[in-house]
Write a structure and sequence with these properties.
Bound molecules: flavin mononucleotide
Largest sheet: 6 strands, parallel
Distance between the termini: 61 Å
CATH topology of the largest domain: Rossmann fold
Shape: elongated
Order of helices and strands: HHHHHEEEHEHEHEHEEH
CATH class of the largest domain: Alpha Beta
Structural class: alpha/beta
Oligomer: single chain
Length: about 325
């Protein structure tokens, strides 16, 4: 029949992979069709059956999906038809419905595909296929909603003091402040801009002297001058306010900055590093100053543990936005 159409046989080979590189190319095809989560799928699974996941990357995707002649969209559509017709492979059909959507065959298109197949595969398999398409579309919508949430802009305002500090009952010299460490963990976890509050006057590097300076300042409700100010937070949706506990609340310099901003509509989260006082009164103080904001849950990190708190800080920060 092909020859009658003027097609010369045997057909030219369409392979682009070799036995040396088919696993890598297959993995890339899996990632292209299903997403980054498939990158390590070939090495996953229980010991006794992980070779099948390897074959899937190596043979199924590495040999077939890398062939020329069909686009990913065409190949995915055909795979979807085969699976729907075969019946009894709902998980695979749902995954390939999602794969189709990822490469441009949307829900409406897949419903048209099912409609075309229906006279050949019958109602039960068509209805199963439709259920898989609906499930894949719901999952896709949920992840798009999540991405939209992630598009929100985050700001991390922090104050942190290097030098002598009180750590687990003794005085130590910190080359990087505890709060700065945590602020950077937040940025790493959820992205956003860091703004460090720096005062014009330098606090003593001697711990005891500094605590006296801070006490005087707090009692007098001082607002120490800053080296630079953040004039507006209009571009941001979520603001993490991070500082050390100084006599039960943030250092006065934090309030110097916070009082200059319009907080209407922002979501504000408190992080405080401390040596025993926890969050102190910082959440209450934020609520007084950040008028018009809504507030997330605060997080207290023991200063001595700051360097080991990445997981805790990251999961807290992600849960707030
Ligand atoms: C001036 C000053 C006052 C402090 N007051 C308290 C306090 O009242 N309660 C507490 O738990 N820790 C207190 N600390 C300890 C710090 O909150 C803690 O070491 C914090 O992690 C330091 O953060 P930083 O390195 O980012 O500046 C104080 C430290 C200083 C320097």
């Amino acid at each position: 029949m092909l020859e009658a159409q003027g097609i010369q046989l045997p057909l030219e080979g369409r392979a682009t992979s070799t036995t040396e590189n088919r696993r890598e190319l297959g993995t890339q095809a899996q990632v292209d069709v299903f997403g980054e989560g498939m990158r390590d799928f070939w090495k996953s699974g229980p010991e006794e059956s992980k070779h099948i996941n390897y074959w899937l990357a190596d043979n199924c995707f590495g040999d077939y999906y890398t062939r020329t002649g069909l686009s990913y969209a065409q190949r995915e559509m055909i795979t979807f038809c085969f699976l729907a017709a075969q019946g009894g492979c709902k998980p695979q059909l749902t995954s390939h419905a999602a794969g189709n959507m990822k490469v441009g065959n949307d829900k409406a298109f897949l419903i048209r595909v099912i409609s075309q197949c229906l006279p050949y595969i019958g109602y039960p398999r068509s209805l199963n296929a439709l259920a898989c398409v609906n499930r894949a579309a719901d999952t896709q919508k949920q992840s798009t909603d999540k991405e939209e949430i992630k598009m929100e802009k985050n700001l991390i305002i922090y104050y942190s003091r290097k030098g002598q500090n009180y750590v687990n009952g003794s005085i130590r010299d910190l080359s990087k402040g505890n709060t700065e460490i945590c602020a950077e963990f937040i940025q790493k976890a959820v992205g956003g801009d860091l703004f460090e509050i720096k005062t014009v006057k330098a606090y003593s590097t001697d711990y005891m002297t500094c605590t006296e300076e801070a006490k005087v300042e707090l009692r007098a409700r001082e607002r120490p001058e800053l080296k630079r100010y953040l004039d507006s937070i209009a571009d941001y949706d979520n603001v993490f306010v991070c500082g050390p506990c100084w006599w039960g609340t943030y250092p006065c310099a934090v309030f110097t900055q916070l009082e200059k901003l319009d907080w209407t509509g922002k979501k504000v989260m408190a992080l405080m590093t401390h040596e025993g006082s926890g969050l102190g009164s910082c959440e209450r103080d934020l609520k007084r100053i950040c008028v018009g904001a809504v507030f997330g849950k605060g997080l207290a990190i023991h200063g001595a543990d700051a360097a080991h708190s990445e997981r805790e800080v990251a999961s807290w920060a992600k849960a707030q936005i």
